[in-house]
Each structure stands twice: as C-alpha cells, then as structure tokens.
Amino acid sequence: MRRTAVTEQNVDLPRIEAAVREILLAVGEDPDREGLKDTPRRVAGAYAEAFQGMFQDPAELLGTTFDIGHQELVLVRNVPFYSMCEHHLVPFYGTAHIGYIPADEGKVTGLSKLARLVDIFAKRPQIQEQLTTQIADSMMDHLDPAGVIVVIEAEHLCMSMRGAAKPGSKTVTSAVRGALRNAVTRSEAMSLILHN
Ligand SMILES: Nc1nc2c(ncn2[C@@H]2O[C@H](COP(=O)(O)OP(=O)(O)OP(=O)(O)O)[C@@H](O)[C@H]2O)c(=O)[nH]1
Ligand SMILES: [Zn+2]
Known about the structure:
This protein has 196 residues and is an alpha+beta fold. It contains 7 helices and 7 strands.
C-alpha cells in the first residue's frame, strides 16, 4: 500500500474529533465546558500532524540522488524525533543516528533527506524496533548502498508516566545491513555514534 500525498487532508479530522469527544465523556468530563470546547478540534489537528508520515513516500524523498564518488561512511548523528507508541498512543522520543556507505555505483542523498526519512517513519503509530528497521530497509531499497547502520535511543512515555513508571530509562535499538555488519566497519560507525 503506497500513499504519496503529503497533506493533513488525508486524515479524517471530524472522525478524530468525534472520538475525542467520546473519550472526554467516558472519563466523566463535560466536552462542552469552556476549557474543553475546542479540544476535540485541537487534538484532531495534533494527531494529523503526529501521523503525517502515513501519507509520505520514502521512495519519493530519496528519489533525488547524486554521485560524488564518496564510498566511505556518511553518518548523520543526533537527529531528534517524536513518535507515537502504537500500544498506548503516547509519545516516545529521542535521537536517531543514521549512517551508510555508498556503493561503487551507489547513490548519495542530501543529508536533510536522511533527517526527513526519520520523520516519515516516526510520524506513524510505531514501536521503536520497527522504526529502526524501516529506516534501515528503506535506505537499502532506495539508495542501493554497500551498508547501513541505524541506532535509535528513546524514552517511552508509556514507561515513564504510567505503567512501569520509570522516567529516564532509555531504550536503544540498532539495525545494521550489508557491509556495516563487518565487525571493523561496524565498530568504527559505533564509535563515531557514541562520540557525542
Ligand atoms: N518492544 C517494544 N515494546 C514497547 C514499545 N513501546 C511500548 N512497548 C511495550 O509494549 C508493552 C505492551 O504491553 P501490554 O501488557 O499489552 O500493555 P500494558 O498492560 O499497558 O503494559 P504496561 O506498560 O506494562 O502497563 C509494554 O511492555 C510497553 O512497555 C516499543 O517501541 N517496543
Ligand atoms: Zn506504549
């Protein structure tokens, strides 16, 4: 399933508004009181923004490439992101580190595209492992690189503000593909990632 349009119009805002009104009623609130009367509309807009990655196409984003004959590691470190845990629909957020080695005939993309790629997959109902592998696999699919490494560190509000209630705990995930699976290359990339 591929959806390409990049607009909030793809999200059914009235449907979210109706659902938010139901939630407010269900917790015993009065959705018509002054402070809450615009809340369903605001939440619908906020959700449309939080899930806009559903309607963006990584193939299109990574479609603009160029060849600069660089076949060494390119690493973009500390890309901040906000995502929504698909189990609880509360945020998880942190930083992504994305590296790749262009192949002989491989393509190089703009650095900003890598940062935007994180958002395409972060702005969906997500789990951290899947976010990590989707970024890595999408780079493998669209840039034909020799290798890819993606490392993500995040705090999950579903673990901080509720449930296990462990604020400050960080989850780290990685996805490594192709030549970056090689122990030496991988450890070079990891030392650059950790060199904060
Ligand atoms: N693997 C993984 N788990 C996640 C992620 N985000 C949230 N979770 C976990 O998903 C699990 C859902 O567990 P359930 O037992 O179905 O839900 P729950 O009763 O709300 O669980 P608690 O959070 O332990 O209260 C929890 O352990 C969450 O910590 C993620 O990105 N990756
Ligand atoms: Zn959760």
